[in-house]
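Q: What structure does this chain adopt?
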Amino acid sequence: QLRLAESGGGLVQPGGSLRLSCVASGDTLDDYAIAWFRLAPRKEREGVSCISGRDGTTYYPDFAQGRFTISLDNAKRTLYLQIDNLKPEDTAVYYCAATPPLFLRPPGVKSMCIMPQNYQYWGLGTLVTVAS
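A:
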């Protein structure tokens, strides 16, 4: 049974940087699609980025390109999210999630890897607060 645990959140000033971590246990990540999501007050859960555990290919929605970077260290079973130039609107609980890639739907649609309904395994989240 795959389990995920996030860490690295906290209070940071606007313009600062933060690196979040997600450690896997119970299984390796090399046969999964893995993603970061965030949930802000009064908003729906939003996909930030995803990565293939097998070949390292990544996907970012338009809003995340430039300031967000996803990476994976398979040897450490750890997923990372680097966030630069943090803004107050980035304040949210950030979650990592994983799923067998064959379960992603609909097939052939790139953004399927940041659709939360496609993911089976979730961490409990880490809170990022961006404020002066």
